[in-house]
Amino acid sequence: MFHFDTPTVPVSDDDLIAALPGFSGRHVDADGIQLHVVTGGEGPPLVLLPSWPMTWWEYRKVLPSLAQHFRVLAVDLRGMGASAKPAQGYDKKTMATDLAWLLSAFEIDAAHIVGNDIGAMVAYSFAANFGARTRSLTMLDTPHPFAVFKVLPLMPEPGVFDVSNTSRSLHPWWFAFNQVPGLPEALFAGRFGFMQNWTIDYLSHDLHAVSDHDRAVFTAAYDDDASVRASLEWFRAFDQDIKDAATYAPLTMPVTGLGGIGFDFLAMFLQAAAPGAKITRLEKTGHWIPSEQPDALVAHLRALITA
Questions:
Q1: Residue 64's CATH number
Q2: Cα–Cα distance for residue pair 125/78, rounded to 1 Å
Q3: Summary mean pLDDT of the chain
Q4: How far apart are alpha carbons 71 and 43 in whole angstroms?
Q5: What integer pLDDT is reported at residue 306 of this predicted model?
Q6: Global pTM value
């Protein structure tokens, strides 16, 4: 059982940004790809990369606090929200290159990079390909695609989809489903909000941490064929992402993994990809760390300044 409400609330980027004093939005040309970014604050540059099926608004709870210590850039990735949705380029290495162009547009040499879900995959790829431009890497609950993706079990454990069981394990069946040609587009057309809300509930510890307003924002952002198609391309690029990951050297910059429901999956990846990484399991959180544990995330990121 999951809830699906569509309240009549402001969902446009202009309205959302207006509710965040000191922040502004703009589009940046990243080698011909227009990326939407919300910026605010002063200090060391900090880049926030969101999840599927969300947008930059995923970080709404932490933006005001972070802006007191950082120059914050919350980015809609290629294919997300108000950013461009080209026909190709959804492998994480290309999306990381988008980010390098974006930093150059802001005249930023290096930044702290943070990502959740698809954003964590792009964040890792950026660190692996642009190490000199990565002050630190923080991955939230999600690894980059790696060889283990190829051997995930088909059948779930009993009770794995019971959202009342807060100790349930993770079974990401949509990794494969979203790669089926054509079928997800047909099923999701005009109904993507059902998939979003099921996923948000399934991956939550606190079912109310992502509010009905937030859900309406995210549903509106994916409520057209181009947005649905682009979001599926992130998954359809996993095979190339796995091949790319096999060529990357272990990371040497400061790396942190913060995990909830995906902790074991993330830890398995980072133990090989970044042997010196600090990996922490957060209590009472699912997948949506910026929503479920905003204070813990802000505390971790503030500590990067002194570190």
A1: 3.40.50.1820
A2: 14
A3: 95
A4: 5
A5: 78
A6: 0.96
